[in-house]
Amino acid sequence: MRKHGTDHSSRAAKTRRGLSRLLRVLACGAVGTVASANASSTEVPVPVLGDRSDQWQLVWRDEFDGTEADLDARWESQNGPSGHILCSRWRENVSVADGMLRLTNRKEDRGGQNWTSGNIWTREHFQYGYFECRYRYAAAPATNNSFWIMTRKDPSQIKEGTDFATARPARGAYFEIDINEGHYPATVNTNIHNWSDLIEVNGKMRSRSDARSYRFGMQPDRVIQLETPITTRKIRFVSQHPRHFHIREFRAFGVKPEGNYPDIFEPVPSDGPVDFLRDPSTRVSVSGYFSGPLPSDVKNDILHLNDNNPATSWISQAEGEKYIEFEFAEPRTIGCVQFLNGWNVGQNWGGGVENYKVQYHDGTDWVEMSSFDLKELDQDFSRDFNVFGLEWNETDLIFYLNGKEIRRAKNEFCHSPAPVWLSLAIITWHGKVTDAIDGTFMEVDYVRIFEPKPE
Predict the structure, then answer these.
(1) What's the pLDDT tens digit per position in 308-345?
(2) CA distance linking residue 106 with residue 426, whole number of Å
């Protein structure tokens, strides 16, 4: 790893954290959550990487045990409006106390915007290594809780003879690596942006981006295999999901005593069990259709619900209750219901449905077969601290959550020194903006940077 700047672990003398903070750390406990083992910042920490932890050595850290002046010595702050989000961001929205850093949202008019928040970045620049941050989200929708790396134009890094306005770094491109852009309650977003080779999208210049989203507790494939088969003429899917979503396949099979139903990710083979929903006599009704723009190669059609092609989809409307209802021409005995939701890029899935009920009609009432609600799971990244990590090297970008790899991508252009950023923002693309955001905060326990130990 190459580090640019002064090599020190803290400007302030490190002291033992207070008992209240240690108890708070030990009390954190969502599924997969990692509690800090460092009650004292005088201990030399290792990364949260399981068996690979001993392969790294610490080169920089901030445990946020110092004063406001210590923070300013190591971090710079935005002080002004933001064109792409709903809040201006200021140093006054950033604070340190009790060994924690807080970025706080406030409903106030400043900088020509109706909200304020915080955004800071390290004065030192880094290139390659393992980057780790333990933090928790602001407890409200429409907030963006970010730990990231992004280059800033530096004349010393620009190719000789290049105009500064259109400059590129000496190698690769100007870039942004979002180790996590977290959304309440439990969504992790990893993004890789190329800020040198822009493309035009709907009349605006955009970065070339590669994004992956992970909603914990959710999965694209749902299989409801019934221990006791049911006989009905109607089944339905109902959801209060707050946005539009994709259903790629919906299937209802008869009873197979051996239980080996087809994989929902694959078409049903010609010699496979009968899918009652594909019977031409089955009637299908839906709550609506997505009315926004779609890529030219994407068609939104009710027939895609059961066309035996997981690559196509029905896309729901954005507002209100969403439903799909199937009515058979005669009673059918069903042993398994499957559906596939969201969308995939490579091996990664996003856009999953946050809640649903699958029901059948018994002739009098709707009876629940299966249900799911993300809010009922014990996954709340605003309550529980989680550790987000990135291994950045010459060839790869490897993303981690609590020491577990969640994504791996080829490093095609991220080859310049860059600062590390911590940011909170108010956004329009994940939930409604309400007064409940006022006073919420992103809380950071530490930022640590490691390099590989010499072989």
Answers:
(1) 999 999 999 999 999 999 999 999 999 999 999 998 86
(2) 10
